[in-house]
Hints:
The chain has helices at about 45-50, 75-80, 95-100, 105-110, 115-130, 130-135, 145-160, 175-190, 205-210, 225-230, 235-240; strands spanning about 5-15, 15-25, 30-35, 60-65, 65, 80-85, 165-170, 195-200, 210-215, 220-225. By secondary structure, it is of the alpha/beta class.
Amino acid sequence: MAGLLEVKDITVEYGAIKAVRGVSFSVDKGQIVAILGANGAGKSTTLRTISGIIKPKSGEILFEGKNIAGKDIHSIARAGISHSPEGRHILMGLTVEENLIVGTYSLVKKNRGAGAKTSKQNEEYVYEMFPVLKERRKQQANTLSGGEQQMLAIGRALMSSPKLLVLDEPSLGLAPIIVKNIFKCIKEISALGTTILIVEQNALQTLKITDYALVLELGKISMEGPASELINDQRLIEAYLGSKK
Ligand SMILES: Nc1ncnc2c1ncn2[C@@H]1O[C@H](COP(=O)(O)OP(=O)(O)OP(=O)(O)O)[C@@H](O)[C@H]1O
Ligand SMILES: [Mg+2]
């Protein structure tokens, strides 16, 4: 079966910097796939290229069989890819609810009249997933804790009913107990039918919830395989996991 997303030999450069050098992988419908790797390995660049924030120098990105490489960010969002970026980028001066509505942009354009109803249903779905956001829905985003802001960033990405949810470092800077909760929610979002591509520094927790993972090193894939195998791979343990106990 062809993957929902197929990344084929993409190369991405920032001027003279070759950030991604010939990366290929695929994400099947229903899977959680992770990209791991050290700082500067090209993880965010790979995600940003998939969602159209930057254009690849070469290579193909097939989404549901159509090449979306180099297409603009809005048409990629309308096709069903939603990106929760590193650093969250929520709108601090807006309320929780207003931030969520921003996330329906691609949905409303796609469905016109039907959009409003679906957006209400999606808002309820986000509140079920993250009940604290419902309590805080009239509050300005800058009054939320770091964990709540991360939930809002993921919630906003869910507002367009994406086929593929792209998460860049959802656990960044959060306390262990909050990280555990975020990972539990990611697993739940997946179980409810959304395919997920996730970038994480937290390799062990990520491998526990993912189906397949790849490790990027200096813009190239250095290791890949089913998460259940990688979690026991000596090279990966030494480089990223330390002690598993
Ligand atoms: N806008 C930019 N202009 C120039 N170079 C960039 C830009 N963004 C990223 N880079 C460079 O591209 C390389 C890959 O960066 P990228 O952000 O993709 O790494 P990453 O794996 O996400 O790292 P981190 O774990 O620190 O988030 C790095 O060498 C980085 O300095
Ligand atoms: Mg990054």
